[in-house]
Structures are given as structure tokens and as C-alpha cells.
Amino acid sequence: MLKNEIMQLTNKYLKQFLGLTALVAMTVSCSKKFSERVPINAPTDGNFWKNEIEANGAVAGSYATLRAAMNEMGMAHYYYGDTQTDEFVARTNGEDYPAITQIQWQTFVAPSQTFRGLIKLRRWDNFYRTIDQQNRCLKYIPTIPLSEFTSVNKEAAKNTLIGENYFLRAFTYFYISRIWGDVPMVLKTAEDAAKEPDLPRTKQAEVLDQCIKDLQEAIKLLPYVTTPTVNRPIRANRGTCYALLAHIYAWKGEYDKVGPAADSVILNGGYTHVSRATRASYTAMFKGNSPEGIFEISQNASNEGSLITAAYGDINNSIAARTLKAPYLLTQLGNSLFTLDAGTLTTLFPNNADSIDLRRRNGFDFWGTTDPICTKYANILYTGPNNTSPLSQNNILVFRLADIKLLKAEALAALNNPSGARTIVNEIRALAGIGPTTATDANMFEEVIQERGRELFIEGHRFYDLVRLARKTNIIRFNGTGTVIRMTISDFNQGKYYWPVEPILMALNPLLAQTPFWADKM
């Protein structure tokens, strides 16, 4: 971690950006949504951490800072996971959009222009802010006496709060390691930033091993929550931990461990599928808190949900603002701001399935035009007169049941069990109202990735799915059907899929090395 950055993250960011004080955390109304509570900041550690209410407020801070990181520029989660894949046409206009969507991430931006999207995406500051909050919770919550907990089962309540932070730290490190590869690993909170040493990047394998250790601790402390409640998908439980474990093992290529982790979710988590039968039932899943949701980032409608669609130059927009148009977003009268790759859509959803696949029918519109749109995020509330001031009411669906089932299918295909993979793929296809896959056994791994593409379109998975596809089969699908070549197999083998580190951070910390592929390009 950067020595000076730690002071910034514990003081300036947490105080000025999130407006945090111990008083706010202590006086949070019991009726206020957990996801809207705010974290404490470092200067209050001495007089905080006294009881369960304060501990719960601090844990809310861990979720809030993670939400802020994943919402950088309005939709950082989707910039990292979708916009530079075959789902979208590579942009050629806009200040930073071409560089982001064409995977020209080395593009120079003046250091003074810290507001620029490319700089923000190349920086990992926000993620280390949430890691510091998680580390703080893991340090101080265990010191709170059980007598200061008011829940009926005091020990379980305390364990749950600790377990949630072990999960969140594992999730955050996994998240950033998929983006940057090797990242600095910090496992304790910064008490005196001026005395903290600069740290180099830690090898990804070591980071992921630590993620697994954290999850093993979390699993011991967290229960399964088998009855859907308003907080179930937005707070970690044991099923959430196993879902993350399955993804970590898949990323590591340890496919023999994916199935057991996935089964712990599928068989024990109490999750059920949402109907795909109507557009209303299907899009409601993306509003959040559905029985299919395993882990979601709850969105504050007055914050992350706001839509600003006036100009291409404003990069601070939600995924709904970027992908919808009238009549689904009445303030966007022209084409959608980000254009879907129509060729990819017809590959994923062949013409003979147009009127059959419920995901195609209820998740898209303007099919067959030059500007088809995905309507998953069409949960819009207009707060102004005459359908103005729209708010996006969509959670970030990080993990859901179909995702984990298809991840298990991917593992089975990788382990030379195509029939097992086929069974799961056909189960997901049946939910969508279409018949069994006709893919050969030899092509089953690729078919699973394509089924994930159909099922999880614009849900933050595609880029990482395509990385695993290329690792396993040498098939490159990032480019889509356009003329822009985002990545060749040679690029891939050199690690182009990992983001470069923003040079501003490297100037602050001389121990940071640039991501290898980009080292001679920036």
C-alpha cells in the first residue's frame, strides 16, 4: 500500500468523501436501510467500538466503501467486466471511452486530470479504502465484550459481524486481483500512515491463497440463511462464501475444487430461480433481493441510482443510463449511449430462437436493428414532473444461482465430464424455455461459456469468462464482430487482460512495478 495513500484513505477520503463521523454511525436509525449506513473513520477509533450497534455500523461501512469502489464513474463494475468484450461495439468517440472499450489502457492522460475516467479505472485507491475498513473491523470487533451485544445469541451476532468482514476482504482482494493481477496485500489497518512502509505488489497466487484462508474463517463464523429476507443477498452468509470460493477456484484453474464449493451453494443455500416467463418477473430480479440472488451490492437510489444522460462527455452514469433508451428510459430519446454488438447477440441467440428464448424475449428489445438494447436494468423511477429526473433501481448482482450452476458446469467440462456439464446447461436452458444444447462433447467447455454469455449478459462476468475461455481453449472472443481488434492470442498470452497501474500511484510508491504487458507502453 502507498504510505501517503493510507493517511488519505483513513482521513481525507473517509471523512470528506463519505462524510463520516462516529456520531453518524452511532445515531443511525434502526429503520434506516443497512445498505445506506456509513462507516466510521480512523480518528474515532479511540472512542468507538464499544457495543453491537457501533460494530454493526462499522460493518455497514465495509459494505458502503465497497459499493463506492464498484460504482466509481457510475458503473466501474461493468467497465471492468463487460464494456471491453464482445457484448459491446468498441467505442470510437468520447474522451476516454475508446481507450477503455478498445483495451488501449496505456493511453496517456495528464496527471492533473484526475477526474478522467481512464485514470480512475487504473487506480485502486477506492478498493484499498474498503480493505482498510475491513481490516479495522477485523481488529476491533473481536475486542468488544459479549456483554455489549444485545442480540439474543450474542456470540452468533459477534461471529457474524467478524465473518462478514473476512468475506468482504476476500471478495475485495479477489476482485482487484482479477483486474490487476499482482496487488499489494495489506492485512492490518493503518494506525500511523506516516510510519507505514511502501509495499510492492504481491503475487496473485499468494493473494488468492489469502482469500481462501479468509473464506475458511468466514465459513466457520457465518450461518446459511435459507429464508429470503430483505438483507439476505446484500449481507454475506455461508452460501455467499462458497460462491466466492467457487469463483476463486475457477480463476485459479483448480476445477476439481469448484464443484464441491458450488454444491454447498446449490444444495444448502436455499436459493431458487426467478421466473423468466415475463419481462416484469425477469427484470425484477435485477432490482435486487430476489430468491435467486446470492450476493448483491445494494444501490442507494439517490446516489448510485441517479441517471445523467445529457452528454457522452459525462462518464459518471449508471449501467441503466448507458444501455437503455426510450421507452425504457424516457429521457434518452436517441440511440443508447453504448451500442451492443448485434453480431454477438445473433451468435448467442440464433434467429431460430428469437421468439423462444425467454431471456432474449424479455431481456432485450429493438432486435434486428442497428441499436438493440438490453432491458435488464429497466427498473426506472422518475422523481421529477413529466417523467424527468430518473433513478435507476437496480442492484449489482455479483453472484446468483444460475451463475454458480453454470460455473459448476464449466468445471465439469474442464474435468472431461461433458455429460455432467450438459445436464446443467440444459437445466438453465429449460428455465429460458429452449431445448437442449446441440454442442458436441468436444466443444462443451466453450458452450458453457456461451451459455454464461446468454444468461449473464451485462452482469459483470463476460470479460473474466472470456479470460478463462482463452486460457483453456486459446479461443479469443473479446473482439466481437466489429473491426477493432481488442486483443490477439499473442496479447493474451502476454497478459494484456490485466489492467495497468495508474502512473500517479507508481510515482507515490517507488516499490510498485507496472503490470508486465503495459510496462514498455506507458
Helices and strands, in order, run as HHHHHHHHHHHHEHHHEEEEEHHHHHH
Mean pLDDT: 89
Structural category is mainly alpha
Principal-axis shape equals globular
Radius of gyration based on Cα positions: 22 Å
Profile the largest sheet: 2 strands, antiparallel
Q: How many strand elements?
A: 6
Name the strands of the widest sheet in spatial order. Answer: 1-6
Number of helices: 21
- Strand residue content: under 5%
Question: What is the CATH C level class of the domain at 1-85 and 118-222 and 495-522, in words?
Answer: Mainly Alpha
Terminal CA distance reads 21 Å
Q: What is the CATH architecture assignment of the domain at 1-85 and 118-222 and 495-522?
A: Alpha Horseshoe
Helix content range: 40-55%
Return residue spans where pLDDT drops below 50 for at least 5 consecutive residues: 1-38, 309-316
Task: Say what the CATH topology of the domain at 1-85 and 118-222 and 495-522 is.
Answer: Serine Threonine Protein Phosphatase 5, Tetratricopeptide repeat
Summarize the structure.
This protein is mainly alpha-helical and 522 residues long. 45% of the residues lie in helices and 5% in strands. The radius of gyration is 22 Å and the shape is globular.
Q: Any overview of this molecule?
A:
With 522 residues, the protein is mainly alpha-helical. Among the domains are: 1-85 and 118-222 and 495-522, Serine Threonine Protein Phosphatase 5, Tetratricopeptide repeat, CATH 1.25.40; 299-394, no CATH class. The chain is built from 21 helices and 6 strands. The strands form 3 sheets. The protein has a two-stranded antiparallel sheet with strand order 1-6. Strands 2-3 form a two-stranded antiparallel sheet. A two-stranded antiparallel ribbon has the order 4-5. Strand 4 and strand 5 (388-392) form a beta hairpin. Helix 11 runs antiparallel to helix 16. The protein is globular.
